[in-house]
Amino acid sequence: xxxxxxxxxxxxxxxxxxxxxxxxxxxxxxxxxxxxxxxxxxxxxxxxxxxxxxxxxxxxxxxxxxxxxxxxxxxxxxxxxxxxxxxxxxxxxxxxxxxxxxxxxxxxxxxxxxxxxxxxxxxxxxxxxxxxxxxxxxxxxxxxxxxxxxxxxxxxxxxxxxxxxxxxxxxxxxxxxxxxxxxxxxxxxxxxxxxxxxxxxxxxxxxxxxxxxxxxxxxxxxxxxxxxxxxxxxxxxxxxxxxxxxxxxxxxxxxxxxxxxxxxxxxxxxxxxxxxxxxxxx
Length: 282
Prior knowledge:
The structure is a single chain. The chain is α/β, with parallel strands linked by helices. It folds into 2 domains: 5-95 and 184-279, SPOUT methyltransferase, trefoil knot domain (Alpha/beta knot), CATH 3.40.1280; 105-168, CATH 2.40.50.140. Helices cover 29% and strands 23% of the residues. The strands form 2 sheets. It has a 6-stranded parallel β-sheet, with helices on both faces. A 5-stranded antiparallel β-sheet has the order 5-4-3-6-7. Strand 3 and strand 4 (125-129) form a beta hairpin. The longest helix is centred in the first third of the chain and has 17 residues, at 21-37.
């Protein structure tokens, strides 16, 4: 079986019912935590209302999600001081594997993976910040200053040496990517090469009724789509002249017999990913 990569699609209007920046920040923090807890590989922010310009909301969500995924020791280098990040400090850290607690060289191990950023060119290669007291040396020069890299420790002596590696080569969960292209859920679902597409909706079938068939298709790239605070994926698809059943393989109600009139997107996200994690653990 190929590696399973779960992507989640959330609407740009997910913060539309939240007026204050502090509460918007908190909501996106919950989404980042849920994605990290359940090893989501990609968070896609789609445009769910083509009648208004959602660029501002989409950029804000993407900025905060990327900031939270970035190791703390790289944030000052990779992010400018922006008003949209003023409440990011109140959020709990993700504590994913590439957010190490120690910044001491003595705790490094050969073969360890670290996220880094290129600081400067060196006569022997590049100086790379990997979150310890002194920059590491990478004996390559094909990367520009300011580039973020996934690295692996190859030598620890007077000089720490690292090599660049493909993020996909890291054996443990290594955080999520963020995609914020200007596309609707319909365009996203039809254009991407997903092996399995799941939609979450109040009007949907139980995952238990579909578990056998989903299990057969649970492989490769998987998309899990979520609706907006004011309307679900059925309505969002209809606005684009589409039928949700033609855009996805399964429409699932992951919170049957809900006790509230509505379920917020971030709540549906936690519930759905928790259920999928039980049935399909990594």
